[in-house]
Amino acid sequence: MTTAGGPTPSRRCGEQYTELGAVYDAARARTLLRSHQPPEVRRPGRPAFDDRLSPREREVAELAARGLRNREIAVVPHLSPRTVEQHVARALRKTGAVSRRDLLRTSP
Predict the structure, then answer these.
(1) What is the pLDDT along the chain (108 residues), one digit of tens a residue?
(2) DSSP state of 67
(3) 37 contacts 1 by C-beta, under 8 angstroms
(4) In degrees, to the nearest 5, what angle opens at C-alpha 98 toward C-alphas 92 and 101?
(5) CA distances (Å), origin 105, targets 59, 60, 102
(6) Chain-centre distance of CA 1, in angstroms?
(7) Running DSSP on this structure, what letter comes out for residue 68?
């Protein structure tokens, strides 16, 4: 959404929040902008990886396969241990691995 002179005031506001490091407010501004777009213009929030590992799942799976525990893995990409647990579970399901150690052998 742009006006003849450039980005809309709402978009500029979101960009300024980002520059200031106001992550919550920037996300709120982006959500508000998306809610006012017609459905045919809206893009989905996340790409679908189907049966392939997402980049984050691959990163977590590699660390899990090396023997790190969820709390140890969570420190590296700044995730919660619960999120790491979910990534490991999806990686196990998607690769068909039977254990965390087996993730290295089964991930393509």
Answers:
(1) 444 555 677 678 778 887 888 777 877 877 777 777 776 665 666 666 778 898 899 999 999 999 999 999 999 888 899 999 999 999 999 999 999 999 877 655
(2) T
(3) yes
(4) 85
(5) 14, 15, 5
(6) 25
(7) -
Alpha-carbon gap, residue 24 to 28, rounded angstroms = 6
- Mutual angle of helices 23-35 and 9-20, in 10-degree steps: 160
Residue range(s) of every CATH 1.10.10.10 domain in the chain: 55-106
List the structure tokens of 5.
Answer: 């002179």
pTM of the predicted structure, to 2 decimals: 0.56
- What the block records as the tokens of 45 is 């929030």
The domain made up of 55-106 has a fold known as Arc Repressor Mutant, subunit A (1.10.10)
Task: Compute the distance between CA of residue 35 and CA of residue 63 in angstroms, rounded to an integer.
Answer: 37
Q: What is the DSSP letter of 108?
A: -
Distance CA 40, CA 2 (A): 17
